[in-house]
Amino acid sequence: MDKTCLLIVDVQNDFCPGGALAVPDGDRVVPAINRILSKFDLVIATRDMHPVKTVHFEKWPPHCVAGTSGAAFHPDLDVSKIDLTVEKGTSNADDGYSGFEATNIDLAAELRNRGVKKLIICGLATDYCVKATALDAVKYGFHTTVLTDCIRAVNVHPDDGEKALAEMATSGVHLTTSDPLRGK
Ligand code: VGL
Ligand code: ZN
User: Which pTM was predicted?
Assistant: First the structure.
């Protein structure tokens, strides 16, 4: 049977208000994601997990340093429903925007081995890690959907989030809200 996996991207303290690289309203994705968590065959969460020193921090304020509370999942995220957590950005490089660059597992192989054909993606941030993960998902051949009400953008430039949505759409990513997944 073809399986569907919810992929939760980087719902970590440092990407939420008060965090080191806060995404505006980043914490608003948490209740929206919690509401749908039980609807999937598999739930995988990614975490941005950087060393103290990395060239990544030449582009960004230091964030999600391994072992810090900033790298932890948002405390309200219902982690009891997460089957597998993958880490990315773990070395001194400006990489790991995509969950498929996870270093503790070969994510694409893991999904294939488990019979996953469809990926539903949510989390932070729309214009970086969500986008990179979704574009990779399409490249790896998964039917890929991004839940527009379960993501938020950094918006370094005000329209980055909108541009990211457009780029995902033209690349074959399906965009929809989580409404049809709720309340069942
Ligand atoms: C992210 C910038 C730097 C993300 C991670 O999770 O979208 N953005 N590192
Ligand atoms: Zn990062």
Answer: 0.98
- Model pLDDT for residues 106-159, shown as the tens digit of each residue: 999 999 999 999 999 999 999 999 999 999 999 999 999 999 999 999 999 999
Pocket test for ligand 1, best of 7, 10, 88 (most atoms within 8 A of CB): 10
Number of domains forming the structure of the chain: 1
The CATH number linked to 19 is: 3.40.50.850
CA distance 12 to 26: 9
pLDDT in tens, 4-14: 999 999 999 99
Backbone angles phi, psi at 119, to 5 degrees: -120, 130
Whole domain around residue 135: which residue ranges? 3-182
User: Distance from the CA of 84 to the center of ligand 1, in angstroms?
Assistant: 20
| Residue 167 near residue 131, CB atoms below 8 Å | yes
